[in-house]
Amino acid sequence: MLRVNQPTAVVAERVRARLRAERRDPSVDPDEVRRIAQLEVRRHNDLALARGTATIDDEAACVRDILAGVSGFGALQALLDDPEIEEIWLNGPERVFIAKGGTTQCVPVQLTEAQLRDLVERMLHTSGRRVDISQPFVDASLPDGSRLHVAIADVVRGSWAVNIRKFLPRFRTLDSLVRQGAVTPDIAELLSHAMREGLSVVVSGATHAGKTTLLAALIGECQDQRIITVEETFELAVDAPDLVALQGRQASLEGTGEITLRRLVKEALRMRPDRLVIGEVRDAEALDLVLALNTGVPGAATVHANSAADALEKLAMLPLLAGRNIDRAFIAPALAASVDLVVHCARDAAGRRQIVEVREPLSADADGRIRSRLIYHVDESPMPVDPFLEVAG
C-alpha cells in the first residue's frame, strides 16, 4: 500500500503549519510552496544530523510527496500524473481502480475516510462546486480538464464513490486518432472536410467509447470559426482562437441560480456562433439543438446510443421531453434536414476505441422514421469519397 512515511508526514505538517501562518494558498503560489517544502526538508535533515537520528535520504522525492499532499491530490497525484491512465475510480478509501491500456486494474493505494473526503473537498474547491446531503451527486472539472464525479452517502451504501475521467491531450487531434488506429485516414479526411465546410456532425456511442475525445478532435479542425461550446461540466478542454466555453450551474442551497443546458444553448445562439457544440445531448435540450441547426447554425454534439441509426432515433425522441406541444412529425424532418453526418464510436473487448460506422441522414417518412445512407462500416471497405457531401447552405 502507498503510505506516507513518518519523517515525510512530520515535515508535511510543518509545511502546512507554515502555509497557514503565512496565509498562503498553494494553488495561487505553487513555486513558493515548493521553496518552503525544500527548506523544511533540509531543516529536518540538519536537525536529524545534529541529533544523530534518521535523515530523509531522497530529499527530492520527499518534496514531491509533500507537494502532492499539500497542493496536489495526495496519494492520487501519481495516478493523475501518469499519462497512460485514462480513468481513476474509488469505491471507498481502500478500493482504488484505474483504466489503463483498455484494461481495469486495482492499484495499491490506501486512504482513510478522512483523507478521501479531504481529497474530494480539495478537488471541488478548485471548481467552485459542492457536495453535501442536500446535493449528494456532483460533476466538476479539475484544473487539468479531467472530469470528477462524486456520490456520497446515503445515496451510496458505505463510503463515498469517486470517478475521475482524465483529460488526455495526446488524443485530441484527428491525426493522433489516426495514428492510434481509432480513425482511418479516409474517414479522418471526411470528418475534417465536414467540420471545415460547416456541416453538422453528431458523435454517438456507449459510455467510454471515445465520444468526447472525437468531438474535441473535430473542434480542432475548424480553428478559423467562432465556436461556442455548451456542457453540463467542462470536459472538452479544447482551444481555438475564437472559442467560448459555457457550462451549467447547480442550484444554490436555496434552490435558485440553476443554469441548465437548455438555457445555455439559447444564450450561445446570441453570441454569434459559427458553430454550436453541445458536449452531450441527453434530455430536452435536443429540441434546442434541432431548432438551432434549422436556423442555419452548424452544430456538433454527442449522444449515447448503440448505433448511428439508434442515435438518430434517440435525437428524434428526446425533444418530446420538452413539452406536449412538440410533435415527432415536426422533429424528424427537421433533424434529417439539419444533421449531415452521424459518427458512431465503439470500444472492443480489448479496450480499443474506434469509429465503426458513419451514416448520412436523408429524409423522414410520414411516420417520423428517419432514412439514412451508410457511408462507412468497420466490417466493410470504406465507400469511395469525393467531396463527400454537398456543403450545407
Automatic annotation (TrEMBL):
Q: Looking at the record's lineage, which domain of life comes first?
A: Bacteria
Q: Which residues form the Bacterial type II secretion system protein E domain?
A: 269-283
Q: Which Pfam families match?
A: T2SSE
- One GO MF term: ATP hydrolysis activity
| Gene3D superfamilies registered for this protein in UniProt | 3.30.450.380, P-loop containing nucleotide triphosphate hydrolases
Under the heading CDD domains, the entry gives: VirB11-like_ATPase (cd01130)
Give the family, as the similarity comment puts it: Belongs to the GSP E family.
Q: What is this protein called?
A: Pilus assembly protein CpaF
Q: Give the organism, scientific name.
A: Microbacterium keratanolyticum
